[in-house]
Write a structure and sequence with these properties.
about 10% helix, Rare lipoprotein A, RlpA-like_DPBB, signal, Immunoglobulin-like, mainly beta, 22 strands, Barwin-like endoglucanases
């Protein structure tokens, strides 16, 4: 007769634990078999760092003179900055660089101003005050600013005979070599080129201008735009063309004038055979110059064109008969 061995029974808590493990492993195996990934241990989701708010930026003027300040106003949200903003500038073909900083007021507003000497773009940036985004920067929309060059030209009246030449001199800023400038004259209400020059290394130029007509021609200098600077214009005075003519003087005081009135001792004026009464004539003689109206007719002797009143002759230091220079 076979002896019976006693049955060994596992404790319930062990069986229950094994069942739980098996159930968990089975569920994991089923999830993997179904193509899924094991469920990770649940954790609280990490807060994503919010980007810093971009400041607003409004330019006072987008077209500036050489050396003029660009002025930018704007506002930035509270908590999106560390108390200050910076104005960045990028000339054509170059990288951004900070050129000015300003503190932000309690209401979030700011004002920035900095001198510009070349055309480029500007924007405003602010470092975030948030620890999670302390390395991030927010920037306003970039705005293009055109900066004109500067022509420094002395305004003066150039006097010469017709066909004679005068020099118009000046400096173009920024100082560069080989930049062409054009001298223009106003003829019949329209500007046209009357001379040209090329700048030296120090920006100086000297243009030759020929007086092509009698009378006064207004002058200006024009510089075309470049990659670095916009074009600019500066007034340069005038050129006055004269011609030689024969004149005399008369002093029949108290006598009638063809244009009305009577001739007085201090009467400034000139007599001419055909010019309309009141026509202004500039007369030069011996380094002196006067501008007087036509007030009478004459002279009718020889080749003389002008008869100067006694007062006009005294103002010029003119005596007798001689050659004077006139603009008509």
């Amino acid at each position: 007769m076979r002896s019976q061995l006693p049955l060994r029974v596992r404790p319930r808590h062990v069986a229950a634990g094994a069942l739980a493990v098996g159930t968990t492993l089975s569920a994991t195996a089923l999830a993997v078999a179904a193509g899924g990934a094991p469920a990770p241990v649940a954790h609280a989701p990490a807060a994503a760092a919010a980007p810093a708010a971009a400041p607003t930026a409004r330019l006072k003027d987008r077209r500036l003179r050489y050396g003029q300040d660009v002025v930018v106003h704007g506002r930035i949200a509270a908590g999106a900055h560390d108390g200050s903003v910076a104005l960045q500038y990028a000339p054509a073909g170059r990288r951004w660089r900070a050129i000015e900083t300003a503190r932000v007021r309690p209401d979030g507003r700011y004002r920035l101003a900095a001198e510009l000497r070349a055309t480029g773009k500007v924007r405003v940036v602010a470092a975030s005050a948030s620890a999670a985004a302390e390395a991030a920067q927010s920037a306003s929309r970039a705005s293009r600013v055109a900066v004109a060059g500067q022509l420094v030209v002395k305004r003066r009246s150039h006097d010469t005979r017709t066909g004679g030449a005068v020099r118009v001199r000046g400096v173009l800023l920024p100082r560069t070599r080989g930049h062409q400038v054009t001298v223009e004259g106003n003829v019949g209400g329209r500007w046209r080129a009357v001379g040209r020059a090329v700048t030296r290394a120090d920006g100086h130029f000297s243009a030759r201008v020929v007086a092509q007509r009698l009378g006064t021609t207004k002058l200006r200098v024009r510089s075309a735009g470049t990659k670095a600077n916009a074009g600019t214009v500066a007034h340069a005075g005038s050129v006055r063309g004269y011609r030689a003519s024969l004149a005399s003087w008369y002093g029949i005081y108290g006598g009638p004038l063809a244009c009305g009135g009577t001739l007085g001792y201090s009467q400034m004026g000139v007599a001419h055979k055909s010019l309309p009464c009141g026509t202004k004539v500039t007369i030069r003689y011996g380094g002196r110059q006067v501008t007087v109206p036509v007030i009478d007719r004459g002279p009718y002797v020889g080749a003389r064109e002008w008869d100067l009143t006694g007062a006009t002759a005294r103002a010029l230091g003119f005596d007798g008969v001689g050659t004077v220079w006139t603009t008509v």
